[in-house]
Design a protein that fits this description.
With about 475 residues, the chain is of the alpha+beta class. The protein contains 7 helices and 19 strands.
């Protein structure tokens, strides 16, 4: 045993004088006397070092005041207990007269024994009664209600309702895709309708779109084959259909992303790094974030006016639902910003900057894909620079074509090459990707007010959006 902080024993000094004995009392036998305190220890006695708790436990209680003699020979108070380590009190010399307290002490002891016996009897009786059916006041886990339910609106309740409608998608590429056959990745999707349509991201299924295979696994472990119904590269939305859809599918309810407010609670469900059925929570950190993200396969960029959330989103969450506190889908998780450069799901883990396609936009795209298999994009009929500040109409279009399509929406509104578009509807525009993101939140045929600058002067015009079918 360690002796640290317990003090070091010092041998007694044989030359140190011992305390002188207390002379016998000369008081009459029937007269009680005041207690004589023991003498203090010699000045050269060793000091013993102890832990504070030991010091506190060993501190002597103050001696009670001397009580006057009582009639009938009431005994004096018991002697004070000496402090730990102090010399013991002297032993009375042989032959000292004894006090007349024996009978009274015996009576007190007898009373104590009777009280102890009564207490023991009561304790035994109570124990016996307890064995005969008196239950404990402690509630064990076995006594908790069998039908315990989480309150509606809690994360646990929302997750329990949503998880059966969220799927993990395994995409494997075919030989025609370039890379090795069978290569692919993992993503997420959710049940869109009872016919077996699954909504996800385009970049989740792009590798398997041409000759590959798709497998969809539900939270109960049941897996089904699926095929691509349609893909929208620009929106980063794709729709699958189960080849043998089971009965009783429960589509997730769709919310209204236009009514989402910054600070609203969010719940993301997906398969980050292949860990299916993972639930994370956060809030809406911002709205209308212009995000241009690559699909991870070398294809074109997708553009969205995204919902930003700090719910943990990682590779594998792509295509999964972003839910509000009621369990309604308000977005499709699509991109993250990490400590690396750029956006996309091919980077390191989440740092709290996740982006989701607003469900109002995704719903329009999904309906179009289910109907025709091809996406339809609203356009203004002008080519804008995608780099640098401002959404400037280029001097020339792709492949030498005109930057402003003759008789197109922009031309009809009077826009020309070199004009800098600074506003689209009620949104401020600061770049080409921001303009495209805002255009794609609308539908073909919508009329939108545009603010632009020409030769240092600000002007406005109204543009009626045209349409483009398919990805070019």
């Amino acid at each position: 045993m360690s002796t640290e902080n317990e003090g070091t024993a010092v041998p007694a000094d044989p030359a140190a004088p011992s305390a002188p004995p207390t002379p016998p009392s000369t008081t009459a036998p029937d007269q009680p006397t005041a207690q004589t305190p023991p003498p203090p220890p010699p000045a050269d006695a060793p000091t013993v070092v102890r832990p504070p708790e030991a010091v506190a436990a060993a501190a002597p209680a103050p001696a009670p005041p001397t009580a006057p003699a009582a009639a009938g020979g009431w005994p004096p108070p018991p002697p004070a207990v000496p402090a730990w380590g102090a010399p013991p009190p002297p032993t009375p010399a042989p032959g000292a007269p004894r006090k007349r307290a024996g009978g009274l002490v015996a009576a007190v002891l007898a009373a104590a024994l009777v009280a102890g016996g009564v207490g023991g009897g009561i304790g035994y009786w109570a124990a016996e009664r307890g064995d005969d059916g008196v239950s404990s006041t402690t509630v064990s886990s076995g006594q908790t209600p069998a039908a315990f339910k989480r309150d509606p609106g809690t994360v646990a309740a929302v997750a329990a309702q949503a998880l059966p409608s969220v799927v993990t998608i395994q995409a494997k590429s075919g030989a025609a895709q370039g890379g090795g056959e069978g290569e692919g990745g993992t993503g997420t999707g959710f049940v869109y309708d009872q016919e077996g349509h699954i909504v996800t991201n385009n970049h989740v299924v792009a590798s398997a779109a041409e000759g590959g295979t798709l497998s969809v696994t539900f939270s109960d472990g049941k897996a089904y084959d699926a095929e691509v119904v349609g893909r929208a590269e620009g929106y980063d939305v794709a729709v699958l259909k189960l080849t043998n859809a089971p009965k009783g599918l429960k589509p997730l309810p769709l919310g209204d992303s236009d009514k989402v407010a910054v600070g609203d609670s969010t719940i993301a469900i997906g398969a980050p790094f292949g860990l299916s059925n993972t639930v994370t929570t956060g809030i809406i950190s911002a709205k209308n974030r212009p995000v241009a993200s690559g699909d991870g396969s070398g294809g074109g960029n997708s553009y969205m006016s995204a919902l930003q959330t700090d719910a943990s989103i990682n590779p594998g969450n792509s295509g999964g639902p972003l839910l509000d506190a009621s369990g309604a889908v308000i977005g499709i998780n699509s991109a993250i910003q990490s400590t690396g450069s750029g956006f996309g799901q091919s980077q390191a883990g989440s740092i709290g900057l996740g982006f989701a396609i607003p469900v109002n936009q995704a719903k329009n795209v999904a309906q179009q894909l289910i109907k025709t298999g091809k996406p339809v994009y609203p356009v203004i009929g002008a080519t804008v620079n995608m780099r640098g500040e401002g959404a400037t109409i280029a001097s020339q279009g792709t492949g030498g074509t005109p930057a402003v399509v003759p008789d197109g929406p922009a031309a009809k509104a009077g826009l020309k090459p070199g004009d800098v578009i600074t506003g689209f509807g009620d949104r401020q525009i600061d770049s080409g990707p921001t303009l495209i993101s805002e255009i794609w939140t609308h539908k073909p045929g919508d009329s939108v007010k545009i603010t632009y600058e020409r030769d240092g002067k600000t002007a406005t015009a109204t543009v009626t959006l045209g349409e483009r079918t398919g990805d070019s």
